[in-house]
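Run log, item B.
One chain of 505 residues. Sequence copied directly from the ordering sheet:
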Amino acid sequence: MTQVEGKLGARVRFAGRAPGQEHRRTDNGLSRVARTGAQAIAHQCDANGFSYATDGRGRGGDGADDCRGRAGLNAYLRQPLTALPLPDKPSVAVLPFDNLSDDPAGDRLADALTENVITNLSLSRDLFVIARNSTLTYKDRSVDPRQIGRELGVMYILEGSIQASSDRARITAQLIEAATGRHVWSNRYDRPLEDIFAIQDEVTEKVAGTLTGWEGAIAEAERAVARRKPPANLQAYDYYLLGIEAKHKETKEDNIRAQELFRKALELDPRSARAYTGLALTYGYEIWLSYTRSRARSLRDWLAAVQKAVALDPYDGEAHMVLGYAYRMLNDYERATHELDRGLELQPNSPDLLMLYVENLPMLGNPQKGVELAERAIRLNPNYPAWYLYGLHRVYYFAGEFEKALAAARQAQELSGPLLAAIYGQLGRNAEAAEGAANVLKLDPDWSAERDISDTGAFARQAELDLYLDGIRKAGLPVCASATALQQRPEMKRLPICEQARAAL
């Protein structure tokens, strides 16, 4: 396998904005984790939002993300942080599998094994499964199962390890009752390395069967697992994991490298839906990192790659979600809604996909549903990463809950942007709105709502467009693009209100 330094983290990252713009980069790969769980971390934040106290384990915090998750948001909303209640269905947290080998590729396999078991279990509607980055809080730590159960609000914990060599894999797994520490089930697998995906399916089936019985969810889980196509080539899979890692560095150079790695994966395994989805998102990054020569070409390549992914694996919820996002960027609202709904149907318990769905809903005209789904995602992922706050502040804004929108926006990864200025404008906090607007225009003197909408996709309904423009006006930001901007971007989508104003000149 290809060797690489470093480890991979949790599964999805949507991070940041281009300077002065409200859009952001989105992907479905592996990324860093924000340790933000209220019970797991005790920290304080400085004036810039960075953690300066320890995380309760004698270590310093992980930087900005530590101060921008659930604890920070609840503080702004003045909501007490209490122990999480148990769900009304069997609930489980899958702890990170330990890598017992010295090979960095083993780290990638351990992370991927953990994520795949979580994903497969989440396909069952009769199980409640905690998200990967919430359980990553406990990586390389010895923690009492009872503590984990309280902190995550679950009944059961699955833990395990993997020791991989060039041709074999030894995997152990054990299911523990959180309240008592009792081992409910355990097993050890010693198989050829290429059997690793069959092993993860067996673990999934055993856990689902143990928690729900052989009726109902276990049958569903078996069908779902059968639908998820495992990689046909381990070398290709390693290239895919390396591509995800490169993409998450979020630079032009690393994104180009990620494209190369995904293409290498596809050369070895032309039927890898995951690699096509990863490749599709690198084209999205070309737009979000603002280095594409042609937005239209990048969108076309994004669409073609993810359509290929869906054709290869029509039961991959992530691929459908990424396809729906592409259609939304193209203002094809009917197809966008269909694909997003299909992705949610296939993976209803994935909090990261829920949040991907959420961030599209204001543009599609259903922000209230976005609020409901965002709160559901947070319960599934109590140690949620900072990027969740991006979707939260958007759906709160378009649902008219401006105070909550402000609470989320102030805890987001970047503390400035047009929508934050609009929120201040809607709240009548004029001085802060003016300061926010000035910061936007300082970073991007040619910024306008018209150009922003052209870049990020139009609104399906007039109501959300009017609410957005109302906040922009109250913040003192320009709605219509300048003549210079229009000359530079002749393909820019024109707003009717701006066309009327230009015609009147």
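Observations after the first pass:
- Strands lie at 13-17, 24-27, 91-94, 98-99, 128-129, 156-164, 168-177, 183-192.
- The longest strand covers residues 168-177.
Flagged for discussion on Thursday.
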